[in-house]
Amino acid sequence: TPLEPFDYVVFGATGDLTMRKLLPALYWRYRDGQMPKGARVIGTARSALDDAAFRDRARDALGKFIKPADLDPAQLAEFLDMVFYVSLDGAKADADWSAMKAVFADAPPERVRVFYLATSPELYGDICRNLSDQGLVTPAARVVLEKPIGHDLESARQINDSVGQYFAETQIFRIDHYLGKETVQNLIALRFANPVFERLWDSDAISSVQITAAETVGVESRAAYYDHSGALRDMIQNHLLQVMCLVAMEPPASLASEDVHIEKLKVLHALKPITPGDVGQVVVRGQYASGEMDGKPVPGYVEELGHDSNTETFVALRAEVHSWRWGSVPFYLRSGKRLPNKVSEIVITFRRPPWSIFPNLSEPNKLVIRLQPEEGIELSIMSKDPTPDGMTLRPADIDISFEKAFGRRYPDAYERLLMDTVRGDSVLFMRRAEVEAAWTWVQPILDAWKHGSPKPYKAGTWGPEAARAMLDADNRRWHEDM
Ligand code: BG6
Question: PANTHER family attached here (predicted)?
């Protein structure tokens, strides 16, 4: 549905996220008719650029991240006409804010203005204070905070406190782009619109859950950010725990933001705490060494970085949600860079039959929910091998590709989420309490990792041997190892 004209201000406008994700997402929304005439995208950063120079950068980025067939020159020009630039150090109170204030001088007060902070989280508090001091925080204003919010529990609390001084919780959108992925939203449909699954969604029927977000890329140009973050802060604390909440939560009373957040928060609170003594057993910390990707040699993490580092590029861990529904079902979470494939998926492994009348029944049923690359759902069921003799069973798959089923382009997660911030719908965002509960749970791991160092794994493999050993000890295997 089309929206009323709005203003979208992006702090950190010259950065990677803006170029790679935000501008392409806004362009697609424009193309689909969701950016009304008069809507404006205002990039802001310290670099001294003017509108024309920023539009050039935006044009280059769109050329890079959108297929030429989808970039009609006339549409591109019309979109770029909606893009502006203000040169400003938003974290500085004594910066010259006049150009930013001028942007809003004639804007009607009810017009939605979104401030998207694609900057380092340390700046969030200062930027919000300055926006408020400059009189730019109207009731129709919203602020979007990129993850990670802080680098530990303490800093997350501080950021939430300071942003909370200037924006009400209903105006704050903590973005986690995994929640905007179509298949993550589809998980809610799968569970609560299909009793055939929800009736089996508990520890009676399910023996384990795996959630993997594997990437082939290394850290490349993002080393300055990544080396202070690492996989636990970059992926597990937010994306994977959020996905886990949607897998594990109870049916919410409705799809209203409040109802869904209450259920997600209950999951985070029910997580079995990890004690310092547990960390060595239930968490694997890895860092890629040189290896091979697609037959080509690639350098290790510290070689790319140019200095020594204890930052992890791989994490695998075993969590439990201590609730009536889940009992002690293990949730194995795993994420890493320089792994063999780019794949994000949830794998639900069901229990084996109590007794087998077949000679070789070996594989349990498995439901694979693919977030990417090819969004879909796969259910493996044991079937008779069509040989004329005997009764030999083999797994066969029911495989749904959403793109084929619906025959349309799958929008990027940011497209949905950016428009939700304009609409004011926060169901796919993180509440303060969730962010802090997630940090509370990972904090003992961060503390334990102040000592020791990650285990190396060869680039192009599925992480350190210890990740496999952790599942071996439970008599299980990672999905890719099957
Ligand atoms: C981001 C992380 O949040 O997610 C990146 O900061 C990571 O390190 C990216 O590459 C992965 O997102 P996606 O959508 O490609 O799985």
Answer: GLUCOSE-6-PHOSPHATE 1-DEHYDROGENASE (PTHR23429:SF0), GLUCOSE-6-PHOSPHATE 1-DEHYDROGENASE G6PD (PTHR23429)
Q: For residue 297, with 0-12 CB atoms within 10 Å meaning exposed, 13-18 middle and 19 or more buried, which class applies?
A: exposed
Name the pTM for this structure: 0.95
Is 213 close to ligand 1, i.e. is its CB under 6 Å away?
yes
All residues at 6 or more sequence positions from 360 whose CB lies less than 8 Å from its CB, including other chains: 392, 393
Q: 234 in ligand 1 pocket by Cβ < 6 Å?
A: yes
CB of 114 closer than 8 Å to CB of 29: no
Q: Identify the three-state secondary structure at position 468.
A: helix
Check if 344 has its Cβ closer than 6 Å to any atom of ligand 1.
Answer: yes
Hey, what are 140's tokens?
A: 């129709």
∠ CA 78-64-100, nearest 5°, is: 50
For 134, the token pair is 């400059």
Nearest CA to ligand 1 atom 8: 234
* DSSP-derived secondary structure letter, 352: P
Which entry of 151, 228, 239, 307 is annotated as an active-site residue?
A: 239
Closest residue (by CA) to atom 13 of ligand 1?
Answer: 178
Length of the chain: 482
Burial class (CB in 10 A: 0-12, 13-18, 19+), 154: exposed
User: ipTM of the predicted structure?
Assistant: 0.97
Give residue-wise pLDDT tens across range 168-208. 999 999 999 999 998 999 999 999 999 999 999 999 999 99
